[in-house]
Amino acid sequence: MITIFINGQIFSPTLGNPFVSAMVINGHRITHMGSGDDEEVLRAQTEGQTVNLANRIVLPGFIDGHVHILNFGLSLQKLDLSRCKSLSDIRQTITAYADTHLTEPRILCRGWNQSATHSEALATTLDDLDARPIYIEALDLHSTWCNSAALVELEIHSRSDPPGGKIHRHQDGTPSGLLDEAAQFDIVWPFLDRVTSLEKKLTAVDAAIAAQKRAGYTGLVDMAMTERCWEVLNTYRKERGGFPFHIAAHWLIPYSKNSTEINKHIDRAIALHQDSNRTSTPDFCIAGIKLICDGTVDGCTAAFHEFYGGLSNTVDPIWPADALAAAILRASEAGLQCAIHAIGDRAVTQTIDCLSLVPNLSACRHRIEHLEITTPGDAERLGQMGIVASVQPVHLDPATFGEWPNMLGPERCKRAFAYREFVDGGAPLAFGTDAPTAAHHALPNLYIATTRRSAIDPSLDETINLEQAVSFATAISAATMGAAYASFADSWTGSLLPGFNADFVVADMQCTPEKLLDAQICETWYKGKRTFDINSNSSCF
């Protein structure tokens, strides 16, 4: 089917002009970009359907370069604590929820900002709220705060700390209520997965997909794929006939002191990649592996060269350098793309050092995720080596900056989220949201990147390192063609060009950073099919 779009502002800067007024699609591909009086457009109008864009903006479909699709969907089923500013707020919110959800076997919460409780997380603080197990997941997903009933059903009292994780304990050795890093990933998540039905998981994926379509996404990069998630997404794909966007996944490789155990996980990713890759199944594939090199600032588990305020010791990276380098090289030799979580400057330095050992590094398009605090030298090395800077502007929202100045000091905070340096140094830039650790919406993400102001609370005057803001065009590129490049999809999506997939959004917006919070996604199109229409909130998929 031929569809002609006219009288629009269609973003395609690679054609020499930032905007053209007309676009023709035939089936799932774009066949022409230009003006309404082009011969190709006039000829197509005799054969196809014409859509008058009424001067609205058309952008390439957004690609969330870092998301957790199943966890995002499941988070929509949990009690949201993100607006709670204190322990009292948290307790009142949980109590009100418990009183109206009496049949739920356990109380699952999300969005806990650790600064709201000054990082205190004791089971006894929750025990009087309800007899059922209570799980409070931190906003960054790297920790869970449990009540005593949850600790019992997790059988935590008989466990030791997993490699790369911590079960927080009282002085007498009994668990106190907080589990972080590998204790979260290897204990809490697998348990909750076992007690969550497949039906509930598929419903969660439905909810995630609906939200992503409304936000204008035509592609996702899932950044911590596991057996449980792969099984759910494969089941969904078979039962529903596919997804309304392309998905590339990075297989999570947990750290172990046993190299054989690490290699087992990498080899599993290699086998899956051989069957499902960008060539064989470009819309649903295993792109590479994910390695978590450190934790988070809010949890005081990110690895820095200097210690946190109030602490006398530095935090080590989760992966020792030799193990990290070995894993990267093994995956690289098999053609897998490596995505490494590194938030603190020490973790970033170690990761770049290890990546520098990879032959023909820039061709691999290896990525570092987050890059929240970097040294000036490391910001330069990203571009010199062709390492993708995969970042999530929503994480720098001033409304969530919280205790950073107290934990890191003003000088280190000046190095936070140095996006402009990454761009000026020549690093490929890709945007994501890290949903559900933050809001999944694409346009507020762009607003924060370009203004360094809060999308959560626009009334705030505070900016975070305004000199590190990127331009509107750079932000759009990072959320579209940059994210496509970072997932080896830039030859067929991420840009509006003849021969590319017809993946795009129609938006009611002004192309200035300050107006991005007022912008609206009106339509989302994937492979030439409209998947979202604001006027009917309907889907053709």
UniProtKB/TrEMBL annotation:
CDD domains in the record: YtcJ_like
InterPro entries in the record: Amidohydro_3, Metal-dep_hydrolase_composite, Metal_Hydrolase, YtcJ-like
Domain of life per record: Eukaryota
Domain Amidohydrolase: 49-531
GO terms assigned for molecular function: hydrolase activity, acting on carbon-nitrogen (but not peptide) bonds
Pfam families per the UniProt record, alphabetical: Amidohydro_3
Name of the featured protein: Amidohydrolase 3 domain-containing protein
Species the sequence originates in: Penicillium salamii
